[in-house]
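Dear H.,

Thanks for agreeing to be a second pair of eyes. The structure we're designing against is below in token form, covering all 243 positions.
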């Protein structure tokens, strides 16, 4: 009887024991994409249907789960502009204006398909929780729901490679169920210091047919940063971090 009971317990408990923990996978995705505190350079390329391109170069630093600053280095018309994200709050600093102004996550300071939430992305676990997780032999499919109504997308579907625990594709949805855009993660690169992640993120949108935006990552490395860096008063001095 004891053997029968033990066997029955194993059978009944197997689904729960073997269930995929979507939130745990999402935490691993965050840390595999980037360390908790770092600096990096990115080139953002907006491509129009006729092939016309506009390029931006940004220097960015991030600390913790929800603090990020990005400084525009080029083109010359945008050089010196700075953006700050603290949780759901975003600001843009323009040298000629001299005072940070509030911006929203759905706006885009660069135009193109990437919005401010994409460019100033914080940890996924800061914004989303897993509603479900499916597993197959190659990876996981996470269905994520926004923790608050302040984030850019109400839901995400994230495909995660099982071997690297890195995303390969993310579909971003509005609360209505409308697909807003799809992100594609490509070209896994070893950045050193234990950081191995996609060096290219591309996006397109059914709402902007023929348009495409690309983010190219370089010089991503761990860096300890004081909290002072992530304040409105520090925005005019972000360039000092590159010296």
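And this is the sequence the design step returned. I haven't edited it by hand at all.
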């Amino acid at each position: 009887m004891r053997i029968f009971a033990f066997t029955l317990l194993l059978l009944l408990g197997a689904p729960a024991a073997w269930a995929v923990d979507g939130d745990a996978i999402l935490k691993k995705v965050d840390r595999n994409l980037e360390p908790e505190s770092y600096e990096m350079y990115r080139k953002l390329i907006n491509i129009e249907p006729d092939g016309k391109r506009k390029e931006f170069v940004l220097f960015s630093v991030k600390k913790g789960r929800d603090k990020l600053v990005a400084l525009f280095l080029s083109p010359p018309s945008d050089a010196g502009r700075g953006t700050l994200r603290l949780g759901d709050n975003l600001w843009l600093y323009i040298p000629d204006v001299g005072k940070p102004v509030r911006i929203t996550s759905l706006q885009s300071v660069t135009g193109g398909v990437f919005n401010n939430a994409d460019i100033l992305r914080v940890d996924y676990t800061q914004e989303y929780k897993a509603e479900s997780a499916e597993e197959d032999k190659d990876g996981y499919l996470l269905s994520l729901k926004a923790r608050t109504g302040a984030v850019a997308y109400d839901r995400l579907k994230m495909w995660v490679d099982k071997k690297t625990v890195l995303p390969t594709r993310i579909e971003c949805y509005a609360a209505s169920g409308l697909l807003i855009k799809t992100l594609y993660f490509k070209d896994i690169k070893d950045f050193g210091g234990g950081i191995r992640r996609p060096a290219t993120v591309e996006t397109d949108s059914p709402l902007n047919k023929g348009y495409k935006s690309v983010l190219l990552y370089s010089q991503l490395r761990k860096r300890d940063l004081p909290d002072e860096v992530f304040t409105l008063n520090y925005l005019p001095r972000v360039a000092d971090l590159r010296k």
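Two observations from my side: Helices lie at 2-18, 22-33, 116-119, 124-127. Residues 4-17 have pLDDT under 50 and may be disordered.

Warmly,
E.
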